[in-house]
Design goal:
The complex is a heterodimer of chains A (356) and B (802). In chain A, helix 2 (21-32) packs antiparallel against helix 4. Chain A contains twelve helices and eleven strands. Chain A is rod-shaped and about 130 Å long. Chain A is of the alpha+beta class and 356 residues long. Chain B is α+β, with helices and mostly antiparallel strands. Chain B contains 20 helices and 42 strands. In chain B, a hairpin with a 2-residue loop joins strand 36 and strand 37 (658-666). The chains are: A alpha+beta (356), B alpha+beta (802).
């Protein structure tokens, strides 16, 4: 038996000294392999009598298990060390730049239009559209703007050539012709907004020959100017995110509304810095009024039965005010530096319930 | 429209302050553009006495003055030739801002003599160009008093914007009437008493207008004045005219200007001695011309009304008088014209001749027709008072058109239309205060519109008048009632698609641009546009003249601008209009974009590839997929892209004859014309061409998902094909070989070169086989593979590469 003890302690010691997995495996083969020392001794047990075979077998098994255990333990240690070694070698400079993956940004005009849709959509306004190239009737006549009226002359209209009937199409000077198209095509009640391109022959620091407007129209039997004030107050406060934003309605004139008003929002201009909100100054932002009875009649709607309001807002203007863009011209210049500075993530989808 | 505060008070008896008036005006619809109060701006400058002026010891042209400012005596060095002992002038103390020079005055030593403050000229005060000497005041001017007060400059000037409907407020009196109605005092009566004539006018008005042209000048009145003196107008009138920016000329001319602004009643005065025969209202004849008061010579035509004598046209009706028959310092006999002209004709005449006069501005907005009567009296009174002489009886021609308009106001309409509660009695009072003749019967208010308010046409106008005077601040803020319980989808299919396409393209790294709808004709031509019917008649410039046939016509120059600025890596898209024709249906909603430069920023760990047509194809497919196009079923037509694309590197994505998108590399000729370095990869998706979802509810219901429990098997194949065979054919053939088993085909390699003979190409695909009822055996896999190879061979002529 001493001999077995000697064998075990000898083998276990050598296992513990194994320097790497390969030599450890050599040891395993030499001890437990087919021709290994322990295996050989197992085979030698066959010549013993059953009693002796049993006791010797048990003793040998103990040795075998102890050696196998030692090998497993050493293997774990060596593998761990090898992994450490590998990880050390695999080290990279994680301060290197990430793989580029650029996301594009949305233009402030389309983001602002989506904000408008989110707000007015909550109030039940559907979105309507119409063509940019309009006829005289929809852009002017139906809106109660007669040909020689100063209001028409002040519109700075772009004209297309006369056709064979002498009619000349225009680029719509406002989104209001869509009021006419909507009322002609359907039956009241109407509750729509119309965002879109508009065109005027005017080009300087604060005017662009193309710009965007949003038109609003509500027609039913009972909507009055108090509702107009309620709607626009709710809109302006939601859009600018200022709960106590003051609004001021001033009488004005538009051929297609009666009564007509211009709307100012409160602001302060202290220290040359424009800030929207309650302050000592006012800033004009939109025109509105009750739809003129003649306009209703021009669309085949009985003005004795139906009434309602309309308003028009410059989209670039309110975007500039909200987001602090100082100039109008870069809106259309497609300068990537501007687009990336003022653009919006496509993941930022305007919604009233999520917050604008 | 400008006026001064004291001028306003000629018509308005009021205790309201300037500030109160200026706060009230915008709430009446009369927007205040500016308020200038010279008394405030000139407050620092006071009346001073020059006690002694002695020559400067070290400078010939300078004088050393001892100046009594009222509070102290200071020494001032002055260079003005008129600075002398005993004079009364205007003193600017040290530290004051000199408006004419824009400097702040400092004490100093001038050539060895101390100087504190300054004696100022009119130019230094910003009053005129006068700089010959310092201002000299009357000896009676009180020492130390503000110079603004002494010089009559303490009258604030108010400028208001007048909306096109309010012609009545183009005279100071109209503004006063609105203010009085709004509770800012009472409107003083206007003295329109008849001025008695003492003789018959030697010339009379004639109207030589055809039956159809009668309305162009329905009425004209006039008077003859003799023995007048046309000197300068009185100080008070000159001050007011100067304050509103008009240059005083002579008493007669100033009177016409004054009445124009005071009462919105343009007048004209002829030097009667220069008028030959009777003045006649008639149409001009072609070829006639007139040297007008502005010194310009105008070519007249048959559409224009002129006032003519035997010499020809002497004035353009409602627009401007003529130079030759105008009044001068020598004028002693005058003929006055007080006429009514057609609004529209004055407007068209003025526009044709490009004359924007105060008269035209008022006539085209509409005068009070009665002003032709009282205007003659007001003018006569002023001329006699200021210029002396005597006046004839009134002579006139034509008739004043009747203006009788009665409108019924149901008092409840102020609440039901305006949302504002106003007592019926208050409504009637407001209308009365505005000059309406009002009758109430308890239920209805019958309002006769005053002759100066032709803009009031309907009950809604009366509602506005009541609300305007009461104040829009009283309109209650009323929430719009909900028209349904919850907000519903408010976008049409096409509107939803625009938003989806935008976000899909931005996700791919393309930035959204918004560009103009118009382009130069040359660029339109590059994109097969430039049709005459889409060319503006009056563009802002030739660069913005033609409606764009393609969004690329504006995006490509935008890319070039970025590139020129040093930002050559460009990825831009726009979702917007392209114009096919001028009909309402001729406008297409397109999602278009382009890329140039590097596909992404440089990366240290990989090869940096270049852009190619497949970037553009990917963009087009992303937009198409986002808007719901059946991208799996789309075919590529290699010849389907328009002429502005590279013919060999572009294509169309279509479903049969329906072309939904085009993509590819842009044509080098186009790039050269725009001057941008290529390649530029572009795409255009016509959103409306994508079929609408068939299923109800927008096709939200998905088919049931069936997941196979068996492992899919992947097999790679490389085929040798003729170069011209489209890869799409190979993929379709492989997919179609066994529709039940083949669940996917990926093309992972295209190879030409060594080992592949010229004219051929090698395409390698991975085919995924997905069994659904049992695990595939080797035999089954081999059988499918054989089928795939056979199918590909049949469809493309390709063979399995050895």
């Amino acid at each position: 038996m001493e001999d077995l003890d000697q064998l075990q302690s000898d083998l276990v010691a050598r296992v513990a000294e194994a320097a790497d997995l390969a030599s450890l495996d050599g040891l395993r083969v030499s001890a437990l392999g087919k021709k290994g020392k322990i295996t050989q001794r197992m085979k030698g047990l066959g010549g013993l009598d059953p009693e002796a075979r049993k006791s010797a077998g048990q003793a040998l098994n103990l040795v075998k298990n102890a050696v196998a255990e030692a090998i497993e333990a050493r293997k774990g240690e060596l593998e761990e060390a090898e992994l450490e070694e590998r990880l050390k070698a695999e080290r990279v400079d994680v301060s290197l730049p990430a793989r580029p993956d650029e996301i594009g940004l949305l233009h402030p005009v389309s983001q602002t239009i989506e904000e408008l849709i989110a707000i007015f959509g909550e109030m039940g306004f559907e979105v309507a559209e119409g063509p940019h190239i309009e006829d005289d009737f929809h852009n002017f006549t139906a809106l109660n703007i007669p040909p020689e009226h100063p209001a028409r002359q002040e519109m700075d209209t772009f004209y297309l050539p006369e056709d064979e009937t002498g009619e000349r199409k225009v680029l719509r000077t406002h989104t209001s012709p869509v009021q006419i198209r909507t009322m002609q095509a359907g039956e009241p009640p109407f509750r729509i907004i119309v965002p879109g391109r508009t065109f005027r022959a005017d080009h300087d620091a604060t005017h662009s020959p193309m710009f965007h407007q949003v038109e609003g129209l509500v027609i039913d039997k009972s909507t009055h100017m108090g509702h107009l004030k309620g709607t626009l107050t709710a809109f302006c406060r939601a859009y600018f995110g200022i709960d106590d934003l003051p609004l001021r309605f001033r009488p004005s004139f538009f051929p297609f509304t009666e009564p007509s008003a211009e709307v100012d929002i409160g602001c302060s201009k202290e220290g040359g810095q424009l800030k929207i909100g309650a302050g000592s100054d006012w800033l004009e932002i939109l025109g509105c009024g009750m739809v003129h009875p003649k306009v209703l009649a021009n669309c085949g709607i009985d003005p004795e039965v139906y009434q309602g309001y309309a308003f028009g807002v410059g989209i670039e203007r309110i975007a500039m005010l909200k987001y602090g863009m100082p100039d109008l011209r870069p809106f259309y210049d497609s300068d990537l530096r501007w687009l990336k500075h003022y653009g919006f993530s496509p993941l930022d989808v305007p919604s009233m319930v999520r917050g604008l | 429209m400008k006026f001064t505060f004291s001028w306003l008070k000629d018509h308005l008896e009021t205790s309201s302050s300037l500030e109160e008036i200026c706060n009230a005006l915008p709430m009446l619809g009369l927007e205040v553009e500016s308020v200038e109060d010279p008394a405030r701006d000139l407050a620092a400058f006071t009346v001073a006495h020059v006690l002694e002026a002695t020559p400067h010891p070290n400078a010939d042209r300078l004088r050393v003055c001892r100046v009594d400012t009222g509070g102290e005596v200071v020494q001032v060095v002055c260079g003005a030739p008129n600075a002398r002992t005993g004079m009364v002038g205007v003193f600017a103390p040290t530290g004051s801002y000199i408006p004419g020079t824009g400097i702040i005055l400092k004490s100093g030593v001038i050539r060895g003599e101390e100087s504190n403050g300054m004696l100022v000229s009119e130019r230094e005060m910003g009053l005129s160009d006068e700089h010959e000497g310092i201002i000299e005041l009357d000896d009676s001017a009180p020492l130390g008093a503000p110079m603004a007060e002494v010089m009559g400059l303490d009258d604030p000037v108010i400028e208001i914007a007048i909306t096109p409907d309010r012609a009545d407020c183009l005279g100071v009196r109209g503004v006063a009437r609105d203010l009085a109605a709004a509770g800012h005092g009472t409107l003083k009566p206007l003295d329109t008493k008849t001025v008695k004539g003492t003789f018959e006018s030697p010339i009379v008005w004639r109207r030589d207008l055809s039956e159809g042209d009668q309305h162009l000048c329905p009425f004209v009145a006039g008077r003859y004045f003799r023995g007048v003196t046309n000197g300068p107008s009185p100080d008070w009138m000159q001050r007011r005219l100067k304050a509103i920016g008009l240059r005083p000329i002579s008493a007669l001319v100033d009177i016409t200007n004054y009445v124009t602004y005071d009462l919105c009643r343009p007048l004209h005065v002829f030097d009667a001695d220069k008028v030959v025969g009777d003045p006649t209202m008639r149409m001009a004849t072609a070829g006639e011309e007139l040297l007008a008061l502005d010194g310009e010579n105008y070519q007249l035509d048959e559409s224009m009304v002129v006032i003519a004598d035997e010499n020809g046209p002497e004035a353009i009706g409602g627009v401007m008088g003529g130079e030759l028959s105008g009044c001068s310092a020598e004028t002693s006999n005058v003929f006055l014209e007080v006429a009514l002209f057609d609004q529209v004709r004055v407007a068209t005449t003025g526009r044709k001749l490009s004359i924007l006069s105060d008269a035209r501005y008022r006539f085209e907005r509409g005068l009070d027709p009665q002003s032709a009567l009282w205007g003659t009296e007001i003018a006569a009174k002023l001329i006699l008072e200021i210029c002396g002489g005597e006046t004839s009886h009134v002579v006139s021609g034509g008739e004043i058109p009747a203006f009788e308009r009665e409108i019924t106001l149901r008092p409840e309409r102020v609440a039901s239309l305006g949302g504002m509660e106003v007592e019926a009695g208050d409504q009637a009072k407001i209308l009365r205060d505005l000059g309406f003749a009002v009758e109430e019967d308890g239920e209805r208010i019958a309002a006769k519109v005053p002759t100066w308010r032709a803009d009031v046409e309907s009950e809604a106008c009366l509602v506005e008048e009541v609300m305007r005077i009461r104040g829009f601040e009283d309109i209650p803020q009323t929430p719009l009632p909900r028209n349904r319980d919850l907000p519903a989808g408010v976008l049409s299919l096409s509107q939803r698609r625009e938003a989806l396409a935008r976000r899909a393209l931005a996700r791919r790294g393309v930035n959204e641009a918004v560009t103009f709808s118009f382009v130069p004709a040359g660029i339109a031509k590059l994109f097969q546009g430039g049709d005459k019917t889409l060319t503006l008649v009056n563009p802002i410039s030739t660069d913005l003249a033609v409606m764009r046939p393609s969004i690329l016509a504006t995006l490509l120059p935008a890319a070039a601008r970025n590139s020129d600025r040093g930002f050559g890596d460009v990825a831009l898209f726009e979702v917007g209009p392209a114009y096919r024709d001028d009909t309402p249906d001729g406008q297409d909603q397109i999602a278009a974009g382009l890329r140039a430069g590097r596909p992404t920023a440089a990366f240290w760990g990989g090869s940096n590839r270049v852009l190619d047509a497949f970037d553009a194809k990917g963009d087009a497919l992303a937009a198409l997929e986002a808007v719901g196009a059946p991208v799996e079923n789309l075919q590529v037509d290699p010849d389907g892209a328009p002429s502005w694309y590279h013919p060999g590197r572009s294509g169309a994505l279509c479903l049969g004859p329906n072309v939904m998108a085009v993509f590819g590399e842009l044509h080098p000729r186009v790039l050269k014309a725009i001057d941008i370095k290529g390649p530029v990869l572009a795409f255009e998706v016509n959103l409306a061409k994508v079929p609408a979802p068939k299923a109800k509810g927008g096709g939200k219901l998905r088919p049931a998902l069936s997941l196979s429990p068996f492992q899919p098997v992947k097999r790679d194949f490389a085929f040798l094909l003729d170069d011209e065979v489209p890869a799409e054919k190979l993929i379709r053939a492989a997919k179609g070989a066994d529709k039940k088993l083949v669940s996917g085909v990926e093309l992972f390699d295209l190879y030409q070169g060594k080992g592949v003979e010229p004219g051929k190409k090698s395409l390698a695909i991975t085919v995924t086989l997905q069994p659904t009822d049992k695990t595939l055996t080797d035999e089954e896999i081999t059988a499918v593979s054989t089928k795939i190879v056979a199918q590909v061979a049949k469809a493309t002529g390709g063979t399995l590469r050895a």
